[in-house]
Design brief:
Blueprint lengths: L14 H13 L6 H12 L5 H27 L5 H24 L13
Membrane topology: Multi-pass membrane protein
Pfam families: MamF_MmsF
Keywords: Membrane, Transmembrane, Transmembrane helix
Length: 119
């Protein structure tokens, strides 16, 4: 009887893929489509990652969807004039979340509060 070998987990627990997602998110500020590629990667790789990297994937997925929500609100509010300020704040929020996540990833530790809506 042959046994199926267990899937091989990457040496870094999937941290290199999470790093790529953060980079894709930051590049999306110039070329917007890369954030979609990043969130798809986060969904694909989160199941095979170690626990602390899975926390980063959760943070990345939430960053994408919450960013979409905030951007939609900002877009709708541009018609009354305050949306431009909100859209600027969304960009700053997005950059801060990516940098914070990247720093924790480099330290090889999970995020303090990956379920947060802010920072």
């Amino acid at each position: 009887m042959t046994e199926t070998p267990a899937p091989v987990q990457p040496q870094d627990g999937g941290a290199s893929n999470a790093k790529i997602v953060y980079i894709l998110y930051l590049v999306s500020l110039i070329a917007g489509i890369t954030s979609i590629i990043g969130v798809v990667m986060a969904y694909i790789y989160q199941g095979d990652a170690s626990d602390w990297v899975r926390d980063h994937y959760r943070w990345q997925i939430r960053t994408f969807w919450i960013g979409i929500l905030y951007s939609l609100a900002g877009f709708l509010l541009t018609f009354i004039g305050i949306g431009f300020i909100l859209l600027l704040l969304v960009v700053v929020w997005f950059i801060i979340r990516c940098i914070k996540g990247f720093q924790c990833l480099e330290k090889r530790q999970p995020l303090p509060d990956s379920g947060s809506w802010l920072f």
